[in-house]
Amino acid sequence: MRLSHNMNSLRLNLGYQKTLKDNVSAIGRISSGVKINSAKDNPNKIAQSESMRIQIRSLQSAQKNLQDGQSMLQTADGALQEANNVLARMKELAISAGDGSKTEADRSAIQAEMTTMKDTLNSLAKDTEFNGVKLIGDENVSSNEYPSYKDTVVGAMVGEKVRIPAYNISASFLHNDEGNALSDIDLTDPDKVDQAIGVIDASITSITSIRSKYGAISNRFESSAESLEQNTLIVEKADSSLRDTDIAVEMAEFARTQILTQTSIALIAQSNNFPQDALKVLERIR
């Protein structure tokens, strides 16, 4: 008589261990909702998924930049609108000072209000800021013909940025083509009224030009934000197809492995009874 291992039970046990492992994996994917929980689950797909997740976070960060940039431009535009109102009042005062019926006292009163308007314009330039950034009162600007620039990253790739010009709309920085500054306007002298009106008109043109530039950048920010939102949704969908669990497929896998596990247990128990049955046969022969 020769004794040997129960090879049938061993083979059944190997199959049982594999099926049990698959069953546990299916349960994990169903419970977590993610089919790639670690690099070993799918080395190729995990690299793609992580790359997409980094891209998603980068796009979301760029969207925040656009929102902040839009808010900064809106803040500046509100101040520039007020600057236009101030300049409109200054032109009214200049035209009023050109009235030949005005006395010196009248012109002095007009000049006093003009000085107040200049101070208001200077305050707008000095106090208008967004998170400490000044777009219309930049002290580094020596001339509005050569503004300084604030770079804003608006995408997830290298070089995707927008340059926002910064100006200084203080009265001393607004002037006409001859270099006569708004801060030097003197309405007490009737002979300088025409010059004052010309300087104010040039200042209005400068402020309007700045608002137009900011408006164009604001429109670009808005369109870029919409584009980034669409791109983010596309990448999120692609990442979801790689990483997220297909519940229907995993439930079918769970049911399959559950049946196989239970069947393996029953077969192993039956296979383990074979040696006992052989011994019983030998006992009868004796």
- Could you report the average pLDDT, rounded to the nearest whole number? 86
The helix content, as a percent range, equals 55-70%
Trace the largest sheet across and list its strands: 1-2
Structural class: mainly alpha
| Overall number of domains | 2
CATH architecture of the largest domain: Up-down Bundle
The unreliable regions are: none
CATH fold descriptor of the largest domain: f41 fragment of flagellin, N-terminal domain
CATH superfamily of the largest domain: f41 fragment of flagellin, N-terminal domain
- C-alpha Rg (nearest Å): 40 Å
Can you put this structure into words, describing what you see?
The longest helix is centred in the first third of the chain and has 55 residues, at 43-97. Helices cover 68% and strands 4% of the residues. It is mainly α and 286 residues long. A two-stranded antiparallel sheet has the order 1-2. Helix 2 (43-97) packs antiparallel against helix 3 and helix 2 runs antiparallel to helix 4. It starts with 6 loop residues before the first helix and ends with a helix. It has six helices and two strands, in the order αααββααα. It has two domains: 7-35 and 245-285; 48-242, f41 fragment of flagellin, N-terminal domain.
